[in-house]
Structure prediction request, 177 residues.
Amino acid sequence: MPDQHDRGYKALFSNPRFMEQLVTSFIHEDWVMQVDFSQASLVDKSYVTRQFKKLESDLIWKLPLKDSGAVYLYMLIEFQSTVDHWMSYRMLRYVLEFYGGLLKAKPKPQRLPAVFPLLVYNGDPRWTAPEQLAAMNNLVSALFLVDSSNVDEIQSRIRGIISGLMIFVPLRRYLPC
Prediction:
């Protein structure tokens, strides 16, 4: 079941609109305003280490900047039941393998591109501020809100999400609320 959940999130965040909403809603850095999301592209995410071990990251997006250059969004989507205290090491390793692949393709670049590692975590403990997610009124925050809800909360949360999203979707008359 966790693998199915993992694949579902990967499929959603492979969509440029979901990725854009994730970045603009949750990353509060100056460079986000410079991203040309219309030119964003997914990057190969498989690596073979020096020990011939295959590593595969979840998603890597190349986000071109409007003035020039690019930022690579390294998105690791993790679904586990507990906190991994070695996650920062794991993320660093993936970023280093990414850089290694770039250096293999172009052995003497002027410089390496900026990489912004992003961890989407869906384990325990759960999101503790659902009102912040509800206030965002977009599909990504709605996904996280429903995913962090318990069985008793889901129906009321979904109704709230639908009414909040009706601002953007003129289908209110077709949905039973």
